[in-house]
Amino acid sequence: xxxxxxxxxxxxxxxxxxxxxxxxxxxxxxxxxxxxxxxxxxxxxxxxxxxxxxxxxxxxxxxxxxxxxxxxxxxxxxxxxxxxxxxxxxxxxxxxxxxxxxxxxxxxxxxxxxxxxxxxxxxxxxxxxxxxxxxxxxxxxxxxxxxxxxxxxxxxxxxxxxxxxxxxxxxxxxxxxxxxxxxxxxxxxxxxxxxxxxxxxxxxxxxxxxx
Length: 211
Known about the structure:
The chain is mainly α. The protein has one domain (3-210). Helix content is 46%, strand content 9%. The strands form 2 sheets. The chain has a two-stranded antiparallel ribbon with strand order 1-2. A two-stranded parallel sheet has the order 3-4. A hairpin with a 5-residue loop joins strand 1 and strand 2 (57-63). Helix 1 (3-39) packs antiparallel against helix 4. The chain is globular, with a radius of gyration of 17 Å. The termini are far apart. The chain crosses the membrane at residues 12-36. Keywords: Membrane, Transferase, Transmembrane, Transmembrane helix. This is Sugar transferase. Belongs to the bacterial sugar transferase family. InterPro entries: Bact_transf.
């Protein structure tokens, strides 16, 4: 099977599986949204601009898991403090990610691919790391089954590039199976990755200016 045919099959499977999952999880998302509204307030959904295929911007959709609490200077408190109650449960069970199935149906995302990152990171990738933009980003990916948010940036982005270089439908099946296992075990969930790792732009700026 040629790569172009495999890509068409991948897109078809993305849409079919996402539609089925959306139908099956409507009650879960509805209850979760109600709990978010009660405990965290409005808005219920978290919307943020990310870089997609060919670096085109799109708005990713998640259930909100954090409050907007700030310190005396007006700065947002650490994620680990603002994410509590229902937010912690939603993240632990990855329920907050379910609205991204809408992004998959719209064509912004695939079920499997490099995780879409913040737009401000775009200038800081190496040439090989920019291969992540050759394919649709995903809800899960090779980096997510190998450590998730605590994997160092260089390693995480290398895994994203490796995924693009070695992509096949069989690789997607393996990643999806491993993701299901991780979600069932709530493995690798991190409430505040910024407490362990610098943001990519800050880390690269420090590294490149000191070299």
